[in-house]
Amino acid sequence: MSASTVTAPRVQSALLSRLASWDAAVVVLSVVVLLIASATIENFGTSTNYTFLVLDLLPIALIALPMTFIVITGEIDLSVASMLGLTSAVMGDLWNRGLTIEAIIPLTIGLGALLGAVNGFFVTVLKLPSLPVTIGTLALYRGLAFVVLGDSAVADFPVSYTTWVTGTIGGVVPNVLVLLLVLALLFGTVLHATAFGRSVYASGANEQAARFSGIRVDHLKLGLYVASGAVSGLAGVLWTFRYSSARADNGVGIELAVVAAVLLGGVSIFGGRGTLPGVLGGVLLLATLQNALRLSDVSNEALNVVTGVLLIFSVLLPNTISGVRAALQRRRRQRVAALS
Asked: Does the domain at residues 23-322 carry the CATH identifier 1.10.3470?
């Protein structure tokens, strides 16, 4: 029997296993839900609504990119929405002080990176758990946003920027979708095709073993928190331009949507497992459901319930499936041992 004859079934088996995985199922489900909603809900399938759908999922998808890395390492960042709000507030304050938009945008993204570095310092240098740390900075950063801007709003940003964020290419493809796809390709390549990405998985699967193998886990995690802050700052800029309004309460609550999308996309809350395509599928599924429910006149309170249910579902079901698979494998091994 030739080597190619032996290899082909293995390759096919691996491919079928990959296609049957949770993250692939989420991608397929998100497309199916999108098609069903387009066919059954009035005005859902219009180009205008698709643009709104992309604009709605944009901040969640952007922040989910670095969040995927963080959760794979076994950590979490719940301060992302507050970083978005604080960077938006600072952006408005700097605009009021007369700085140009060209200067404000890099300063705002840099501020986000600094806020992320603070989170990373607490987690990697002081060795504090990321969950309580980022809950604390969630409250701290949101409070600072109100210190900076109060209850007021800044709304006189240049039309050229606000129209670009809400505009389309050829009346079909939203401008911001191109930006999202470029960043998703960049983050996906790093995670799935580089040594850095392998280090991320190794750190989440077994941190002690990763340290013994020479991976600088603390430096890696610190870099991820800086990236999370920078992307949250970028999301703050885009949020501000989309609504033409810098406010201290911008982005309130979207951290739950981000975490729900990441976990729904197949990333293990315990670290070491997950893919970026699965996460993007989770983002699309969550955004499609929310958009469809809004068009069906469902209240915001009900939308929060849906997000909460999906968050529980995304943790419970994959772990239940993993437990069932492990039990079946144990039984299989026991049967083999009994027969031998």
From this structure: yes
